[in-house]
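Appendix B. One record, verbatim.
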Amino acid sequence: MKKIFLLILVLFSGAISAQTFKFGPKVGGVISDFAIHNGGAFNPGFKAGLFFEYGKGKWAGETGITMMFSNSVFDNLVTIPLDIKYYLYRGLFVKAGGSYGISAAVEIMDDVIVSPSKLQVFNLGAGVGYKLSERISLDLFYERSVWCNFFSTDNSVLGISLSWNILKVK
């Protein structure tokens, strides 16, 4: 892991002066079918967290940490997203990437305690967004589970989020 981190650091160290770093809170609403007790019905919920964006020109990488809350206990996930953004025209951008999440709750199923570390999920997703101002962005995204260690991977999330850039360093 250290070797991979050092390799990434070396690859990007030459252009650090031309990079832009942004940081701030991100909140939004979601609709998810990632539940086991609802018979496949969609659950409304919300997402809240922090984002970090690092980029140059039209390209940027975005990561952070996010909590997703919904009606189902298993929809309460802590996720770490990793997205690549491309700014198309003015404030319009597209993004794609993945996220890794673990359950943020404990539930009893069939008299067995299921701990948070038992449920792990990896999602792939894509979205589109728009910079409303220099500090505020709005994006619409869709995520689909490609791996889940506890349940079927037939799970998806559709959401909208608002980002507020409170720190920008060039």
